[in-house]
Design a protein that fits this description.
- The protein folds into 2 domains: about 190 residues, 3-Layer(aba) Sandwich (Rossmann fold), CATH 3.40.50; about 190 residues, 3-Layer(aba) Sandwich (Rossmann fold), CATH 3.40.50.2000.
- Helix 9 links the parallel strand 7 and strand 8.
- It is built from 17 helices and 12 strands.
- The chain is globular.
- The chain is an alpha/beta fold and about 400 residues long.
- About 45% of the residues lie in helices and about 15% in strands.
Length: about 400
């Protein structure tokens, strides 16, 4: 270590920015770890959501403005996003933080960092761009303006190091979120769900565009499942950005549904569920930790799908991290044209009919989960120490 973080005499100001709920969770854990590692001699500015706010961040503007995905979704909101880029750059120039730490949301964060490059402020990005999946040229591009990269996956650093960008595998933060500690029996008691009633976790995502596409498909999937499992019930774990829309939709589902928010309630729901149908994303790792068998579903707009097929060179066979790490399709992925109620219902029914099939998926996923951790050190601690080392190396 370049410097012992605990010996830093002055209070550090770190600008930290995230653009979606998963980044907000990541940022909150990093902020908490930075407080521990500096004995509280740190304060924050930046952009974040509810969880980062709970660690003391006053967001420059609502993070929800950046929770967009897909080319077709971004274009109509581009002027507003560019205005927010200018505001963020001005804030960084005014306060001159000891470091800028960006989390995911590369479309926004990288625009900001390119504009503040050259100010002598270390620029650190958390969550590597998926250059191993598509756009391999992006590794060279980000190496031109970033100072350090912190990766969640063990195979990612070499892609960037060969372009001259220092990169550190810090481990995946989902391992310390508590997804493996849910109390399923208590959840069922709280919500009046008998132990022998089949319960399906329905997880349509956290962005407005993905929720609007997946909710109708999931509703029809439940209709089909009800025919075979008449006592089926559903639980929906959602976040503030889309909670209103999800709650309104769930009222009209063909099976009784409980809508929950908050991390603890979500993990209890995962422990209680017999299976899950989920939008692609970090939730797949949370479900694996909870040993909840799952089907992954996803759809983007037809325009975005066409652009991805015709303009980008996709190098990855799978969308789910567990499948990528195992290099096989352990978790069924029904994407785009395959994201249909008939296919989803049949895939989910496998786990509702045969609990042993779900246990087999969970057992196999455990091998992938082991590759995401670091022995004896929490990912957030490793990330915080990396940030402080970068700052110390710059004389901060």
């Amino acid at each position: 270590m370049a410097s012992s973080p605990q010996t830093m005499a002055r209070e550090l100001l770190i600008f930290i920015m995230a653009g979606e709920p998963s980044g907000d969770a990541l940022g909150a854990r990093l902020m908490a770890a930075l407080k521990r590692e500096t004995n509280g001699a740190v304060r924050f500015a930046g952009i974040g959501g509810e969880r980062m706010a709970s660690e003391g961040l006053r967001s420059l503007f609502p993070m929800e403005e950046l929770s967009i995905m897909g080319l077709a979704e971004v274009l109509p909101r581009a002027p507003r996003v560019l205005q927010r880029v200018r505001e963020t750059v001005a804030q960084i120039k005014r306060i001159r933080p000891a470091a800028v730490v960006s989390i995911d949301a590369t479309g926004f964060c990288f625009r900001v960092e390119k504009r503040v490059k050259g100010l002598g402020i270390p620029l650190i990005h958390y969550v590597a761009p998926m250059v191993w999946a598509w756009r391999p040229w992006k590794a060279k591009l980000v190496a031109k303006f970033l100072d350090h990269l912190m990766t969640l996956l063990p195979f990612e650093p070499p892609y960037f190091e060969k372009e001259g960008l220092p990169a550190t595998f810090v481990g995946h933060p989902v391992l310390e979120e508590g997804a493996d500690k849910g109390d399923g029996a208590a959840f069922r008691r709280r919500h009046g769900i008998p132990p022998d009633v089949p319960l399906l976790a329905v997880l349509p995502g956290s962005r407005h565009a993905e929720v609007s596409r997946l909710l109708p498909v999931f509703a029809e999937t439940l209709e089909r499942l009800k025919a075979e499992f008449p006592s089926l019930r559903a639980v929906v774990a959602t976040v503030g950005t889309v909670a209103g829309r999800v709650t309104a939709a769930a009222r009209h589902w063909p099976v009784p549904a409980v809508v929950v928010g908050g991390v603890a309630e979500k993990y209890d729901a995962f422990a209680a569920a017999d299976a899950a149908i989920a939008a692609s994303g970090t939730v797949s790792l949370e479900l694996s930790l909870a040993r909840c068998p799952m089907i992954i579903a996803y759809k983007v707009s037809p325009l975005t799908a066409w652009l991805l097929r015709h303009l980008f060179d996709i190098h990855v066979r799978f969308a789910t991290i567990v499948n990528i790490l195992l290099d096989r399709g352990l978790i069924p992925e029904l994407l785009q044209d395959d994201c249909r109620p008939d296919k989803l219902a049949e895939a989910v029914a496998v786990f509702l009919r045969d609990p042993a099939a779900g246990r087999a998926q969970a057992d196999a996923a455990a091998a992938a989960l082991r590759r995401l951790g670091l022995e004896g050190q929490a990912p957030s601690t490793r990330a915080a120490r990396t940030v402080l080392e970068v700052i110390a190396a710059r004389g901060g």
